[in-house]
């Protein structure tokens, strides 16, 4: 069996292809469905039949004649007659509405609970006399029979006031369930109304390891198995997730000093949030000043370089740290003794060598590094970040991390990944599917598990998977005082599921729960692709659908416009607004002719204007063709650029952990002769398009320090060598650490090699310091100017405008008027003069923060009141304020 790491790499590539389709960077060819002249009988190793509720079965490919469900050793049958879907069933299963439907015979409906606890086949005698059979998908009927009653049942370990734990697991299809507790077996009792198995324990069970012994029919192997499996509702784990632990998260022994009295920084509304995206291990693993490199406790090292930098960002206006997955994931050995390390002197190789990536790749499957997007247990902290993965140290230390961030002035966001699991079926890394096979995973029409999310997809549209999402998020909020959640591939969730999360959080109060749930922020990836695309199965939590909910979605519009091209271009040199398109062209033929470049640059400027408004659908402005348009009428790869109903619906960003860092993207795209100082200036200008927008904005940690991953496009498994943050400028910014790993980057090596070999692209301390200081100046301006936090489309329409937009607009320059501010983004290599005649005579001056800032080039920006002319140096963003 392939390792999870190799499987993850394969699925990450599949995800990249899927997202390329979403972003319009690839073409999907779909053949028209055709009915063969003589359909072959369905295969029993597939599951083409779906039992959607106690009354109805849908069978793709069946004839519209009598059929039956068969189960049990004696071939007991449930009779099926041709029928039709009710309007409610059609609404619940739109993707199945065209398939033959069958009605369960009233006389046989009582057999359903027994039929669901073993091998189940749909059978039919075809018109030509053949016997057709197929497997049966059962999530719908399980929800119908048990879901409504089970969705409020407490699951996992629950401690009573007397200190006695009860353990409960939902396993309605199991023949038996027992508890393996500390080496002995304890029977569990089934509640036939809910399908929940429960056992009441004694006080001395606390702290003991356990697993469930689940005897169940497993369609993936075609037999009844007894699975020894951990608890999906685990609250603590032994090392490497081998056993769950009977743990009460309210145990005072697990509370760090001051936990109950923790004072958080003031909550910042989502529309004003400025977020740093950060990987726990990246943050400190190469920080020589940290006492706990690579661990949760690094965030308690107040004097470390990393924490000093986070505090400076917090003082400047960063409000949240978004942690990449820190729940229990499958791909990193948790004990240090089991973790492999590259056996080479990586620093000795040339900056453009392929030796580093080769050496790192040999240990990638067993090193301590992974982004963590391969969930194993959703509601337990990852053990590899703890000082001791065995037991509850990870619980205490995660809480101490939250304390450390809060005390630094930062609230904490968790990246959560409920859209898929690390594995399915009988794989050892499969938890949910070994307890209720075929329920928690999303199945395709033939019964195969959907993998469009990159891995084994889950089905939050099913009652108990949706419940798991809500229960898990609430646990992180209550028990770990997490201040926000970022949903990975949120578009694969039903909108209703994400709204249920919002409702559950809103019900949390400081008096009852110790947290104010209404102040917890939510955002996610609202991409629209895969088997759920275009609301095929349910109304999705996509960009368009989430508008107006107060839950933000990442906006790719301005990201692509500021960088240029798309994340999956064959030629990475395709330029954009902040990378020199038209105004400072490189030699890539992908940029087109000068006329084509100019036209594309002006369109990018329209996309950036929409982004600066918060991606508002109904905001009206004059575009670069001279037309009066709404944000929704500006094209983005065939879809509306503007989709938000209010500021806060769209989250702006110029880079994140996916794809090349911003510095690396600009390294590819800027002309090779561009000097280090100018690269830093273009970095700040690119970051400004998000930092100075309406609505929330996110940046990848280290981007203000020109963070590089040596041009790695997909560093999820590239180890510390490529991923670690370098807070000390003497260590460089990560550029030139060798060619990036071949698996996801080899096709770019011809472009990468000369760049990595160029010492001019490895910036020194002066450039790193000046870039970071200039970015922090922008954060201060955003934090202190109320006009950047407008709350409605009407307010944005009234206070924000682009006075020079139109046919005569300057390519490479955007001028935005916002309340008593004027912002000029000059992406060209020359100083620019922007004359706004309506402002002639008005007393504007460069914003005091920039006038007194460390960037003396920006400090030379000026305003001539007689003509209303703003003069801005090359590659500079300048903010002017009316006196």
From TrEMBL:
Keywords: Signal
Signal sequence interval, chain numbering: 1-39
Top-rank taxon: Bacteria
GO MF terms held by the record: pullulanase activity
Location of the Glycoside hydrolase family 13 N-terminal domain: 154-234
Entries under Gene3D superfamilies matching the protein: Glycosidases, Golgi alpha-mannosidase II, Immunoglobulins, Rab geranylgeranyltransferase alpha-subunit, insert domain
Keyword Translocase: no
Pfam families on file: CBM_48, Pullul_strch_C, Pullulanase_N2
Domain Pullulanase N2: 46-144
Biological process annotations from GO: carbohydrate metabolic process
InterPro entries xrefs: GH, Glyco_hydro_13_N, Glyco_hydro_b, Ig-like_fold, Ig_E-set, Pullul_strch, Pullul_strch_C, Pullulanase_N2
The Alpha-1,6-glucosidases pullulanase-type C-terminal domain, residue ranges: 732-880
Keyword Endoplasmic reticulum set for record: no
NCBIfam families on file: pullul_strch
Similarity remark: Belongs to the glycosyl hydrolase 13 family.
Protein name: Pullulanase-type alpha-1,6-glucosidase
Organism: Streptomyces nigrescens
Gene: pulA
């Amino acid at each position: 069996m392939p390792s999870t790491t190799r499987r993850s790499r394969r699925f990450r590539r599949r995800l990249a292809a899927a997202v390329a389709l979403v972003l319009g960077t690839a073409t999907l060819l779909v053949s028209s469905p055709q009915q063969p002249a003589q359909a072959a009988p369905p295969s029993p190793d597939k599951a083409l039949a779906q039992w959607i509720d106690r009354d109805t079965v849908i069978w793709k490919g069946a004839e519209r004649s009598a059929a039956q469900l068969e189960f049990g050793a004696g071939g007991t049958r449930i009779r099926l007659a041709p029928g039709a879907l009710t309007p409610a069933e059609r609404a619940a299963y739109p993707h199945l509405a065209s398939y033959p439907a069958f009605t369960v015979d009233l006389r046989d409906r009582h057999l359903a609970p027994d039929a669901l606890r073993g091998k189940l086949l749909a059978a039919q005698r075809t018109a030509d006399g053949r016997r057709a059979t197929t497997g049966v998908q059962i999530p719908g009927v399980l929800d119908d029979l048990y879901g409504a009653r089970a969705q409020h049942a407490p699951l996992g370990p629950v401690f009573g006031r007397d200190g006695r734990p009860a353990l409960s697991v939902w396993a309605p299809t199991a023949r038996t369930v027992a508890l393996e507790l500390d080496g002995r077996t304890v029977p569990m009792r089934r509640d036939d109304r809910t399908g929940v198995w429960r056992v009441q324990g004694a006080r001395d069970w606390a702290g003991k390891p356990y697993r469930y012994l689940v005897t169940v029919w497993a369609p993936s192997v075609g037999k009844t198995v007894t699975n020894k499996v951990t608890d999906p509702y685990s609250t603590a784990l032994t090392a490497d997730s081998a056993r769950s632990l009977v743990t009460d998260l309210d145990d005072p022994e697990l509370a760090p000093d001051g936990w109950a009295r923790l004072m958080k920084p003031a909550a910042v509304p989502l529309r004003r949030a400025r977020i740093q995206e950060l990987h726990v291990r990246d943050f400190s693993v190469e920080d020589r000043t940290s006492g706990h490199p690579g661990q949760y406790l690094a965030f308690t090292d107040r004097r470390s370089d990393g924490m000093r930098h986070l505090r400076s960002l917090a003082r400047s206006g960063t409000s949240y740290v978004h942690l990449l997955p820190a729940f229990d994931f499958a791909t990193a050995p948790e004990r240090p003794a089991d973790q492999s390390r590259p056996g080479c002197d990586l620093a000795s190789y040339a900056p453009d060598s392929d030796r580093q990536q080769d050496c790192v790749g040999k240990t990638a499957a067993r090193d301590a590094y992974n982004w963590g997007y391969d969930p194993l247990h959703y509601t337990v902290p990852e053990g590899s970040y703890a000082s001791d993965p065995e037991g509850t140290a990870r619980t205490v230390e995660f809480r101490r991390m939250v304390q450390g961030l809060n005390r630094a002035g930062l609230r904490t966001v968790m990246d959560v990944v409920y859209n898929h699991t690390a594995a399915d079926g009988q794989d050892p890394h499969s938890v949910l599917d070994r307890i209720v096979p075929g329920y928690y995973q999303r199945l395709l029409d033939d019964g195969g598990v959907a993998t469009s999310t990159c891995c084994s997809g889950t089905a939050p549209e099913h009652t108990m998977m949706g419940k798991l999402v809500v229960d898990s998020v609430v646990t992180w909020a209550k028990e770990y005082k997490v201040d926000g959640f970022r949903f990975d591939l949120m578009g694969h969730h039903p909108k209703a599921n994400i709204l249920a999360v919002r409702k559950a959080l809103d019900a949390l109060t400081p008096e009852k729960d110790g947290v104010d749930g209404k102040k917890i922020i939510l955002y996610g990836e609202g991409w629209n692709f895969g088997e759920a695309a275009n609301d095929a199965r349910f109304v999705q939590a996509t960009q368009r659908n989430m508008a107006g909910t107060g839950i933000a979605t990442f906006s790719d519009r301005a990201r692509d416009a500021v960088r240029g091209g798309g994340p999956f271009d064959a030629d990475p040199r395709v330029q954009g607004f902040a990378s020199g398109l038209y105004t400072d062209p490189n030699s890539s033929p992908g940029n087109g002719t000068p006329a084509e470049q100019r036209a594309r640059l002006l369109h990018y400027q329209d996309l950036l204007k929409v982004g600066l408004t918060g991606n508002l659908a109904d905001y009206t402005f004059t575009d670069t063709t001279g037309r009066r348009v709404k944000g929704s009428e500006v094209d983005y790869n065939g879809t509306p650029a503007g989709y938000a109903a209010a500021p806060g619906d769209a989250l702006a960003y110029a880079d994140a952990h996916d794809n090349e860092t911003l510095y690396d993207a600009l390294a590819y795209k800027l002309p090779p002769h561009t000097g280090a100082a100018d690269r830093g200036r273009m970095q700040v200008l690119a970051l400004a398009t998000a930092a100075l927008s309406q609505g929330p904005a996110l940046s990848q940690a280290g981007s203000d320090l020109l963070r590089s991953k040596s041009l790695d496009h997909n560093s999820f498994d590239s180890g510390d060598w490529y991923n670690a943050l370098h807070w000390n400028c003497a260590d460089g910014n990560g550029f030139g650490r060798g060619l990036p790993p071949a698996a996801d980057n080899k096709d770019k090596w011809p472009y990468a090699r000369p760049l990595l070999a160029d010492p001019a692209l490895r910036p020194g301390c002066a450039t790193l310091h000046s870039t970071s200081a200039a970015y922090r100046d922008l954060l201060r301006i955003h934090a202190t100017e109320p006009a950047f936090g407008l709350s409605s489309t009407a307010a944005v329409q009234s206070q924000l405008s682009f006075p020079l937009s139109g046919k005569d607009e300057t390519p490479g320059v955007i001028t935005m008027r916002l309340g008593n501010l004027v912002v000029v983004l000059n992406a060209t290599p020359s100083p620019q003069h922007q004359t706004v005649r309506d402002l002639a005579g008005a007393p504007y001056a460069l914003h005091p923060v920039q006038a007194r800032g460390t960037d003396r080039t920006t400090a030379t920006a000026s305003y001539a009141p007689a003509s209303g002319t703003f003069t801005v140096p090359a590659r500079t963003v300048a903010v002017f304020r009316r006196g």
